[in-house]
Amino acid sequence: MIFGRSERGKPPVEPLTFKILVAGGFGVGKTTLVGAVSEIRPLRTEELLTEAGRPVDDLSGVEGKHTTTVAMDFGRITLREDLVLYLFGTPGQERFWFMWDELSEGALGAVVLADTRRLEDCFAAIDYFERRSIPFVVGVNCFEGAARYPATAVRQALDLDEDVPVLLCDARERESVKETLIGVVQHAMAYTAAHRRSVTT
User: Fold this and answer.
1) Pairing of strands 83-89, 67-80
2) Please, which contacts does 183-190 make with residues 24 or more away whose CB atoms are closer than 8 Å?
3) Distance between CA atoms of residues 108 and 188, nearest Å
4) Is residue 134 pLDDT above 90, yes or no?
5) Is 57 left (phi over 0), alpha (psi -120 to 50) or beta?
6) How are beta strands 67-80 and 136-141 bridged, if at all?
7) Which helix (H) or strand (E) segment is 17 a member of?
8) How far does the chain reach from its first CA to its final CA, in angstroms?
9) What are the start-end ranges of the H helices in the chain?
């Protein structure tokens, strides 16, 4: 089966599509994560960092970063003939947060990427999804040279609810990213089922 075509004699299948957001602070690895798993060349809206942005762009811990996402990253994964997953990476800097409402419309769930060297940078994303009741997992991006902490320590530092999964991942590795996305889908399904039960009781 080739995406968009059907087997001979069978009508084409209109795939069911889902959207997952990839959010987090500036330089945490969102663009890398989307690129690691997308089956198409990811759409990227990156621009070079400039001197004009230095007063507002905190490069602490990401001194080697030279570009930033100004709108979104976009990738696609075909899970089955009838099931397609779209990934939308959100811009990490505060001055581009106005894009988040548009990108989050209709999202199944989200990954909030975290860097243990700059955990405070993901507070805004966590707060955003909690306020809008969008299910999310926290993916701790395991950067080289960064201290490793157990999921329980990260959960406590971020003051997360017990039902929010905390997953260790490597945004560069396809299999690691796939496991994280599976975690998002499973959590979103459980979150939706629990919400339905609370509404009917």
Assistant:
1) antiparallel
2) 183/137, 184/20, 184/108, 184/109, 184/110, 184/111, 184/135, 184/136, 184/137, 185/18, 185/20, 185/108, 185/109, 187/109, 187/135, 187/136, 187/137, 188/108, 188/109, 188/135, 190/163
3) 7
4) yes
5) beta
6) unpaired
7) strand 16-24
8) 44
9) 30-37, 100-104, 123-131, 151-158, 174-200
Q: Give me the pLDDT at residue 65, please.
A: 42
Write phi, then psi, for 184 (nearest 5 degrees): -65, -50
Count helices and strands in the chain by DSSP H and E runs:
5, 7
Q: If you search the block for the tokens 């209709």, which residue do you land on? A: 106
Buried b (16+ CB within 10 A) or exposed e, 135-169: bbbbbbbbbeeeeebeeeebbeebebeeebbbbbb
Q: What is the 3-state secondary structure (H, E, C) of 26-41?
A: CCCCHHHHHHHHCCCC
Taking residues 24-41, what's their average pLDDT?
91
pLDDT above 70: residue 38? yes
